[in-house]
């Protein structure tokens, strides 16, 4: 099996790579945290988190804090496994 087989298309966009990287080192992140850390637009964050949710790599929790909506993102067990395989494949590819 080729190394390239473990490079996951779900992570081929820099925003998705960033979202997963943030969620690997934090228990969760909210919308504003992702937006701020990644310097991305609302639309960018929304579409890329939806894409990651669709493949079940992240879980989205919506709640209200006071009267304000708050959206929380968490990496799923599957997401963490797949992201680690992706990073390992990239490291092998560059000969680390």
Report what the structure shows.
The protein is an alpha+beta fold. The protein has one domain: Orthogonal Bundle (Arc Repressor Mutant, subunit A), CATH 1.10.10.10. The protein is 52% helix and 19% strand. The chain is built from 4 helices and 3 strands; from the N terminus they run H-E-H-H-E-E-H. The protein has a 3-stranded antiparallel sheet with strand order 1-3-2. Strand 2 (58-65) and strand 3 form a beta hairpin. The protein starts with 13 loop residues before the first helix and ends with a helix. 20% of the residues are buried.
Helix content: 40-55%
How does the helix and strand content classify structurally?
alpha+beta
Strand content: 15-25%
CATH class: Mainly Alpha
CATH homologous superfamily?
A: Winged helix-like DNA-binding domain superfamily/Winged helix DNA-binding domain
Strand order of the largest sheet: 1-3-2
Order of helices and strands: HEHHEEH
User: How many domain units?
Assistant: 1
Instruction: State the total count of DSSP E strands.
Output: 3
CATH architecture: Orthogonal Bundle
Oligomer: single chain
Rg, rounded, reads 14 Å
- Please report the number of helical segments: 4
Mean pLDDT value? 93
- 3D shape: elongated
* Main beta sheet: 3 strands, antiparallel
> Which segments are poorly predicted (pLDDT under 50) over 5 or more consecutive residues?
none
């Amino acid at each position: 099996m080729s190394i390239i087989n473990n490079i996951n298309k779900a992570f081929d966009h820099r925003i998705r790579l960033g979202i997963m990287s943030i969620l690997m080192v934090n228990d969760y992140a909210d919308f504003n945290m992702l937006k701020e850390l990644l310097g991305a637009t609302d639309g960018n964050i929304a579409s890329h988190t939806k894409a990651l949710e669709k493949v079940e790599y992240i879980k989205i929790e919506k709640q209200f804090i006071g009267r304000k909506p708050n959206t929380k993102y968490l990496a799923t067990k599957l997401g963490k496994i797949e992201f680690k395989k992706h990073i390992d494949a990239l490291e092998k590819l560059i000969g680390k």
